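hey can u check if this looks right to u? its 318 residues, i copy pasted from the old doc so theres a chance i mangled smth
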Amino acid sequence: MAPIGVGTWSWGNRLLWTYRPERDDPLLLDTFQACVRAGLTFFDTADSYGTGKLQGRSEILLGQGLSRLSPKQRQQVTVATKLAPYPWRLGRHGFCKAAAASRQRLGRPIDLVQLHWSTARYAPWQEKLLLQGLTDQVQLGGAKAVGLSNMGPQRLRRAVAWMADSGVPLRSVQVQFSLLSRQPLQPGGVLEVCRELGVTVIAYSPLALGLLTGQHTTNRLPSGLRGLLFRRLLPRLEPLLALMGEMAMDHGSTPAGVAVNWCRAHGTVPIPGLRRPHHVKAMEQARGWILSSHERQALDQASRELATLMPQNPFQSA
């Protein structure tokens, strides 16, 4: 798994990212090509990405991008997708059609198939069966490895025990993690448990929906729901963003590069959302350096009181 990946939640999302196919699709496909050229070859998606009738749009766009690569380039790309445990996807075979549909949209087997969220809050008895279904996908050749998403430390330990019986080890756990979403860092939290179990942590929303890029001010806000959130939070982030800006200058980087390298410094694989070719250059550059222990500690301290500001995923389990 690459040290920095690419998240594609915004690819097809109208609610938060005002996606419009005629405007955005050419740019997203150009972004995909730029990522591959830059060596950013780990892409994360989900079968539920895409608003309303556009559900699955992110996988479709990735499939289109993959089809335009040379055979050698396609071999270098790793694609992870998440399958949503909707209430109607029941039992061990509940993901069979969904996994087949994802493979068709992507035009290839799935490298890492993930349970999108825990069913602990509405159907806890389903979780083991669905995980067995994901391990079946690996054993049948439809996927190469299994991961989890939005899973807390308690459910994580149960899942690892269940999967041990199948002979298919858990490869990764994906959680919301950034300077503004630090819950996985708590004692006994996901990062600690994953270090103990030897499981990779994938950090989604490492830029906190764009709040940590340093590109926005209260006078220059994104549209829609993100703009409302930014207007409320940006004034409280000024000291942190100033510190990130200083560190970025020291490394010839950007605040976004500092944000993803803070995630890397805590042992995770960040997957920032990239929507435009010019976003790729900052992430390519960010791979070439790491934070010092002093810098990481300074960011830890500066962000400590901000750790509960960001809305958390309601599907995150304990």
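The mean pLDDT is 95.
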